[in-house]
Amino acid sequence: DGEVHMNELKNGNTEMFWNPTSEVRRQRLKRHIVLFEEQMDFESERLWQHVTSAINKGDQHKATQEKFVLEEEQRNAARERRESGTEWKPLLFRHDAGTNEWRYKYEDLRPWDPLNDIAQFEKDGILQTMERHLSTRMSNHKATCINNQITRHKRSAKDCRRRKTSDQPSNHSQNTESSCSTPESVQDLSDDDGKYLGFESLCAQCGKEMNHLKEIHSAVLSLQKAQQDIHR
Fold first, then answer.
1. Is the pLDDT of residue 228 over 90?
2. Of 9, 112, 128, 162, which residue has the fewest beta carbons closer than 10 angstroms?
3. pTM given for the model
């Protein structure tokens, strides 16, 4: 947060290396952290609190000592697990055998999409992105419901045609023929979930989630307007 200078020992000259101007400060991302009292023992801020305190006080010797204590505790814990045959299973990281590195399980390396992405946040250690469009899970579930209804509709029409050609026509069969119809093309299915094809309404889960997503959509529109105001 302050100016950083480089001192040339040979000639005693000092050169400005970094100057956080007021404009730079305004562009900084807001830092969000978990409250200290809510953090668990192995979360970084709590785990390294004594090292951080020593650094802030300018006590490099104390900071080195505290860092050594932490690292020794970690080495001893690893040794005890190895001797007891206990397997270490990280909650949020996986080991990459190819690079011999630990990688975050939920890393999101795709470019940020300002037209669709609203916010990125962490919940229980899992990185998540809030998007404007309906979730893929909901879309897939909705598509599955519609496809099932299309299949039933086609099967019903097929049964009608089979009855139509199996026996000699009678009054009953003629009535059956008049009550059966060939399904229309389903390629142009609208957002009304196929109601124009005579499908029944979506399943209870779809209906519940659709109502919930409508509420989210209204909130998203409000956020989108606020974002546009900010951009202006």
1. no
2. 9
3. 0.39
Residues in the chain: 232
Give me the residue label for tokens 């055998």.
Answer: 97
Separation between Cα atoms, residue 162 and residue 9, nearest integer Å: 96
Q: Answer yes or no: is pLDDT of 100 > 50.
A: yes
- Tell me the average pLDDT of the chain: 77
Residue of 200, 196, 189 whose CA lies nearest to 139:
189
